[in-house]
Design goal:
InterPro entries: Thioredoxin-like_sf. This is Thioredoxin-like [2Fe-2S] ferredoxin. Pfam families: 2Fe-2S_thioredx. The protein is of the alpha+beta class. The chain has a single domain, classed as Glutaredoxin, CATH 3.40.30.10. The protein has three helices and four strands, in the order βααβββα. Helix 2 packs across helix 3. The longest helix is centred in the N-terminal third of the chain and has 11 residues. Bound molecules: FE2/S2 (inorganic) cluster. FE2/S2 (inorganic) cluster (FES) binds next to helix 1.
């Protein structure tokens, strides 16, 4: 059986926190708790990714989401 859980890295550095990273994390957790997506994603909080000007930053697989929102990240999760 193929392991299909996607890794989503959410920056938790100070600039991204100010940019709403905590809220973004909570929103994403809520959105991926829906039955269709439950158990398909693993969220990992990271330290600063050195891209603070584009906060909040999230990496989905090999895609970098800059100045992102929960909806944009969710769309990327579904795409990848
Ligand atoms: S704080 Fe997120 S990239 Fe620096």
């Amino acid at each position: 059986m193929k392991h299909t859980r996607k890794l989503v890295f959410i920056c938790n550095g100070s600039d991204c926190k100010q940019g709403g990273a905590k809220k973004l994390y909570k929103e994403l957790k809520g959105l991926t708790d829906e039955p269709a997506l439950k158990g398909t994603c693993k969220f990992i909080k990271t330290k600063c990714m050195d891209m603070c000007k584009t906060a909040p930053n999230v990496i989905v697989g090999d895609h970098f989401c800059k100045k992102t929102t929960a909806d944009k990240v969710l769309a990327q999760i579904k795409k990848s």
